[in-house]
Structure formats: C-alpha cells, structure tokens
Design brief:
By secondary structure, the protein is mainly α. Among the domains are: 18-142, Serine Threonine Protein Phosphatase 5, Tetratricopeptide repeat (Alpha Horseshoe); 160-240, Tetratricopeptide repeat domain (Serine Threonine Protein Phosphatase 5, Tetratricopeptide repeat), CATH 1.25.40.10. It is 79% helix and 1% strand. It contains 26 helices and two strands. The chain has helices at residues 12-17, 19-58, 61-72, 78-90, 94-107, 112-124, 128-141, 146-158, 162-175, 180-192, 196-209, 214-226, 230-243, 248-260, 264-276, 282-295, 301-314, 319-331, 335-349, 353-366, 373-386, 390-402, 406-423, 430-440, 444-459, 466-490; strands at residues 3-4, 9-10. A two-stranded antiparallel sheet has the order 1-2. β1 (3-4) and β2 form a beta hairpin. The longest helix is centred in the N-terminal third of the chain and has 40 residues, at 19-58. The protein is elongated. The chain starts with a strand and ends with a helix. Residues 1-45 have low confidence and may be disordered.
C-alpha cells in the first residue's frame, strides 16, 4: 500500500521500520490537507466577492445581500462587512448598514474607502458630528481623498457652516480650476455670508466655465437685483429663460424686475404667467394686484380689486395690503368694501398715526358722495381725534352744515378759525370759505362780513383778467343779495 503526498512514494514496510518517520509523514499529510482546504475556501471567497461585486454593480442589491449573508456564516472579515454596508446603503437602509460599516472601518482603520462608507451612513442618519469627524479622519490619512473632501464641504454647507464650507470648496477649486461646480459652491457660500461682491465673482466664474449653469445664472440675477443693478439682472434673467422658459423662479424675477422699474403693464404679463401656471402664492397675487392698481387703467380696476382680495384671504394682517385693497375697491365702485378694508388698515396700524391719518383722508374723499355723507362725517370726526388741523375742521363744519346741524357746524367753524391762527397759514382766500360756511347755516350777517373781507383781499391784486373780474362781480352780487335778505328778515 502506498500513500501519495505529492512528494514521493513510501512503502508500508518503511512505516514499520521507521515509526518516527511514519508519524512525521502523517503530520505533514494533515498540514497539506489543511493548506489545500484553506486554499479552496479562499478561492471560493474570491469567487463569491466577484459575484457579490457584480451583483452590486448591476444594482441587484437584494440578491447581493443574500449571497453576503451566506458568506458571513463562514467569513466576517472587513471585506464582506464593507460589502454588506454598501448593499444596505444602496437600499437606503442606513440603520441596518451602520453597524457593519462601523465594524469594517474598525477592522481596517487606515482603509479610507471603508471610512467613506461609514461617514455616508452617519450623514444619512443625521449624525453630523460623527460624519464630520470621520471625513476629517479620512483626510488625515489621505489629504487628496476627493470623495471625503467634497462630502465634508457639503456637510458644512447643509449645516449652515458656510465659513468652513468655503474653506474646503476653495481647496477643491485650487486643485481643479476648471470645475464650474466648485466655483458655484464658493459663490453660494459668499452669498450666504452676505458678501455679494465676492459671490458675484465666483458665480460669474462658474457661469463663464458653463454658460448653461442655470443655478449660477439665477444666483447672479438675484445678486444684481439685490444691489440694484437692474439692467444686469434683467440680462441674466433673460439668459436663464432662454435656457428654460418654464422656470418659475426666473419668470417671477422678470415680473419683480418690471415691477421695481415701474413698468407695471410689462410686469402684469409675467405675473399672469405665474398665476396661470398655478403659482397663486400670496406675493404673486399681491404684486400682480398692485401692478393692475398702479397701471391705473379703467379696464384694470376690477382685476386689481379681485387679485388683492385673493391675497387678503391668505393674509388678513398686512396693513399695506388692506390699504391698497380699500383703494382698489373704491376704484371698482365697491364703496362698502372699500370702507371695510380701509378701516381694517387703520386698525392694523394702531398706534401709527402717520399711516392711518392718511388713510382717513382717503376715506373722507372716498365717501364724498351724497349717499355717504353720514359716513364721511363719521370718518372725518375719527380722523380729527388723532390729528386736529384746519382742513379737517373745515370739512366737519361743512358736513354738519349739510346735515342742517347748525350748532355743531358753528362749533367747528370756530375751531377752524382758531386752527388757522395756530397754524400760521396764509389766510388769503379763507374768508371766502368762512363766508360760504356761514351762508350754508343761515348766518347771513356773518357771511356778509367774511365776503366783504374777501372782496377787499382780492381787489388788491388789481387783476384785469376777464374771469377774475366776473368772479369779483359775482361776490358783489352775493353780498347785495344777502344784505337784502337780512333787511327783509329784519322787517
């Protein structure tokens, strides 16, 4: 009987004659068998890695995981753990992938690819501190590791650490001066750091390297708009729309530029596009409504009121909106609605008297209609509470006279006269106003006094104008008629 060990043949008699030799041969046999087994297993692992890698490349992650799990029964080395982490990452099962990524990276701490997978897991699970630390460790091992450096920059950016993001992107751009993306990101960091001049420089570099970089164009357009270089902003907005006419942010920029330049009818074209495409946001409705209002055409009056009222349904607390909405309703002849929204504006502006006094003035004019005299008087009295001036006192006196409330009319005539003195205004012409007020409430003698005072004032001008002479003659006739009335009433 002969045992073949692959070296030489030994007879059974040799074994009897040399027992020690026989024992040594048996040990050798066992060693060789173990070596052969290990070799076969390694060959099998290598073949399995190839199969796993092929499945991962093809995107067959579920099949890859099944093969990996079978392999893990016999092999828990870093390579298989690493592949297990990658497969689960690809399926966005980051919580499952994490422990395997940790084990793989711990097994080979100098392997930057393993650590890159671990860092990605940390990042996806919002474990930003761990992710940052892992990327930094990778770069300590390999300062040129592009994946780690790029993702570290993104991590800083996503966590609003713009200064560190700027530092890393600057390092990346220094190594790759033709990379439009890196310049874009530097520009973005500068913009968020409120450094528009630097931001423009780097966005411009990104744009020059890639004229179809729509994000760079949009950022440049916004920056030029912010620094009031509207021609440049318009030029870039048009360049962006030439690349993508459906981009709503660029359509909005165009509308806002025309609005800012007070080209309201041009702005309307673009706000209508936004609204037609379903963007009925508050600001689009608001500014579209204002464009129709400021364009001030008869055919726009209803549209202005309608759009501003739609904006109001989204935010009823905007005092400026309420003010313009009230005015737009006035133009649309919706007087009750106009009064409602103007009053709302006043309520929202308390205690800012400068705003609501102006609004009251507008409302006084709004109600200057025979059907709204009571409302007009109410508003005028409210306004007078906050700011007492001769103009409002005069208006109140007239309204009381119109309502045949002589006592109240006389009270405000006196207030009106006193305010004229206090305000130290040029009294030329005011005698005529007083005369007219006294005449309206039947105080004819007082009216005569004021008309005669007025007549003396205007006769001093010595004007030969035909119209002016007719006006003087009219005053004389009025005085004569009032004197006659007083005479006959006295008798």
């Amino acid at each position: 009987m002969t045992l073949s060990l692959g070296v030489r043949k030994i007879s059974s008699s040799d074994a009897i004659l040399y027992p020690q030799a026989t024992k040594n041969i048996e040990n050798m046999r066992k060693f060789i068998c173990f070596f052969l087994f290990t070799f076969v297993v390694k060959i099998g692992f290598t073949q399995n890695f190839e199969k796993i890698d092929l499945l991962l490349l093809k995107g067959n992650f579920a099949d890859a995981i099944q093969l990996i799990d079978n392999q893990l029964l016999a092999d828990s080395t870093s390579g298989i753990l690493y592949r297990k982490a990658i497969a689960h990452q690809a399926l966005m099962q980051y919580d499952v992938a994490l422990p395997f990524a940790i084990k793989a990276a711990k097994a080979e701490p100098q392997n930057t690819d393993y650590k890159a997978v671990l860092a990605k897991n940390y990042n996806e699970l919002d474990m930003f501190v761990n992710a940052k630390q892992t990327y930094i460790e990778i770069l300590k091992t390999d300062s040129t590791h592009l994946n780690a450096k790029t993702n570290l920059a993104k991590l800083y950016l996503n966590n609003a650490d713009f200064e560190n993001a700027l530092l890393v992107y600057s390092q990346l751009s220094a190594k790759d001066t033709a990379n439009s993306y890196f310049y874009h990101q530097i520009g973005f960091c500068y913009r968020r750091l409120n450094e528009p001049v630097h931001a423009i420089v780097f966005f411009d570099k990104a744009y020059s390297l890639n004229p179809e970089n729509l994000s760079a164009i949009k950022n440049l357009s916004a920056l030029y708009f912010d620094i009031k270089k509207y021609d440049k902003a318009m030029e870039l907005t048009d360049a962006g729309l030439a690349l993508d006419s459906t981009d709503l942010s660029l359509v909005k920029r165009k509308a806002n530029l025309f609005y800012t330049l007070k080209k309201f009818e041009d702005a309307i074209v673009y706000y209508k596009k936004l609204l037609q495409r379903g963007d009925s946001s508050y600001f689009n409705l608001y500014f579209a409504g204002l464009c129709y209002y400021f364009a001030d055409k008869f055919e726009f009056k209803t549209e202005a009121a309608s759009l501003l009222e739609k904006a109001y349904t989204q935010d009823s607390t905007d005092k400026v909106l309420c003010s313009y909405l009230g005015r737009a309703m006035h133009r649309a002849f919706e007087y009750d609605k106009a009064g409602y929204y103007l009053n709302k504006a006043i309520e929202l502006n308390m205690p800012d008297t400068s705003f609501f006094v102006d609004t009251y003035d507008y409302m006084i004019d709004l109600y200057n209609n025979d059907n709204y005299k009571e409302k007009q008087l109410e508003v005028a009295l409210q306004r007078f509470k906050y700011q007492q001036d001769s103009k409002t006192a005069n208006k109140i006196a007239y309204l009381y006279a119109y309502a045949s409330q002589k006592k109240e009319a006389l009270k405000y005539i006196e207030i009106f006269e006193q305010l004229l003195i206090n305000e130290k205004v040029d009294r030329y012409g005011y005698s005529y106003i007083l005369a007219d007020l006294y005449e309206k409430i039947g105080e004819k003698q007082k009216a005569i006094v004021q008309y005669e005072k007025y007549l003396k004032e205007i006769e001093k001008t010595n004007s030969t104008d035909e119209g002016f002479q007719k006006h003087i003659e009219g005053i004389r006739v009025k005085i004569g008629k009032l004197k006659a009335d007083v005479h006959f009433e006295g008798n």
